[in-house]
């Protein structure tokens, strides 16, 4: 785990939430099980395989030394989460506080935006760090659209989770964002995120099953931008190989002429060709316009295994 310890020794004082070390990308042999994130002021170490106490002690020592250098006098806060294969398949994780404390409420920043997170419960902490460039793309798209068209874009945010894309769009100048997610708790956090950023208007929130709500969703359109960031596999609600097609075939009716779709896929076993092929089959009027790069720290030995964020134009 030397590469992880080296990354800790070299990390700068954290400001925004971000990943510090990405062993999952396979670029550091022997460290594939490890990731280290920071949701200031809390570090989150995740292991996707069993970890022994000696390994955790080594990380604690490295964090303690570096923290004293970059934040003298400040307490060190860090959390360890084990996501072994058996736990992952059950949708569970084993999380424990290793040092310090976690703020409650816990609010982090990214590019000037503020988001509520929760690092002590569940596998998802409220803000997907690998999607930072996707959020930046949405904000810049909304800003460019307003400048070009003289009005704010209408945006549909499917599988909205905690609505970070909506915050980005409204900060960029979007006129309206419709957020749809079946998770009521996630939508409630999304509403908090809008209030945290002073976005008291412009967004609507539908805690609905997308596949049972197409009528209501379609009536809110047409949209200048449709965002789809579904789970790659969520038993009982969404399986990418089966259900993405059901979303894509709706896009021609949802998009305004010249509108854009931002389609996300975070399944290592499915490549860009899968998603482009699905679009060609289900919505052939859409033209591929490019791929949004992932944050550099998320680099993978095989780019097709990493998060895929593709842009299409009607």
Give an overview in words.
- By secondary structure, the chain is an alpha/beta fold.
- It has two domains: 2-117, RNA methyltransferase domain (HRMD) like (Transcription Regulator spoIIAA), CATH 3.30.750; 129-313, Vaccinia Virus protein VP39 (Rossmann fold), CATH 3.40.50.150.
- The protein has a seven-stranded mixed sheet, sandwiched between helices.
- Strand 12 and strand 13 form a beta hairpin.
- It starts with a helix and ends with a strand.
- The protein has ten helices and 16 strands.
- The model has no long low-confidence stretch (mean pLDDT 94).
Quick tags:
single chain, 314 residues, alpha/beta, Transcription Regulator spoIIAA, Rossmann fold, seven-stranded mixed sheet, five-stranded mixed sheet, 32% helix
Unreliable stretches covering 5 or more consecutive residues: none
Whole-number total of structural domains: 2
> So how many helices?
10
Number of strands: 16
Rg (C-alpha, Å): 20 Å
User: Can you identify the CATH superfamily of the largest domain?
Assistant: Vaccinia Virus protein VP39
* Shape summary: globular
Under CATH, the topology of the largest domain can be stated as Rossmann fold
Order of helices and strands: HEEEHEHEEEHEHEHEHEEEHHEHEE
- CATH architectural label of the largest domain: 3-Layer(aba) Sandwich
């Amino acid at each position: 785990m030397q590469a992880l310890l080296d990354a800790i020794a070299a990390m700068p004082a954290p400001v925004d939430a971000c990943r510090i070390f990405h062993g999952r990308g396979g670029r550091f042999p022997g460290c594939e099980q490890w990731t280290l994130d920071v949701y200031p002021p809390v570090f989150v170490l995740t292991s996707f395989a069993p970890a022994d106490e000696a390994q955790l002690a080594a990380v604690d020592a490295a964090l303690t030394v570096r923290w004293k250098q970059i934040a003298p006098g400040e307490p060190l806060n860090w959390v360890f989460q084990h996501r072994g294969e058996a736990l992952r398949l059950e949708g569970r994780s084993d999380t424990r506080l290793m040092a310090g404390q976690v703020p409650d409420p816990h609010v982090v920043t990214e590019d000037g935006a503020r988001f509520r997170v929760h690092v002590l419960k569940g596998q998802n902490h409220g803000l997907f760090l690998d999607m930072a460039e996707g959020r930046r793309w949405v904000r810049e798209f909304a800003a460019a659209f307003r400048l070009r068209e003289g009005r704010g874009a209408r945006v549909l945010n499917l599988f909205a989770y905690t609505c970070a894309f909506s915050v980005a769009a409204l900060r960029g100048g979007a006129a309206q964002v419709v957020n749809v997610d079946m998770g009521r708790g996630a939508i409630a956090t999304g509403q908090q995120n809008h209030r945290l950023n002073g976005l008291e208007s412009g967004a609507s929130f539908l805690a609905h099953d997308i596949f049972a709500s197409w009528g209501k969703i379609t009536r809110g359109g047409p949209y200048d931008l449709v965002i789809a960031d579904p789970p790659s596999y969520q038993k009982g609600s969404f399986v990418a190989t089966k259900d993405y097609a059901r979303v894509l075939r709706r896009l021609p009716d949802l998009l305004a002429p010249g509108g854009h779709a931002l389609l996300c896929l975070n399944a290592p076993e499915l490549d860009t060709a899968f998603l482009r092929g699905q679009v060609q089959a289900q919505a052939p009027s859409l033209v591929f316009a490019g791929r949004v790069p992932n944050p550099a720290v998320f680099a993978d030995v095989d780019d097709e295994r990493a998060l895929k964020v593709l842009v299409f134009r009607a």
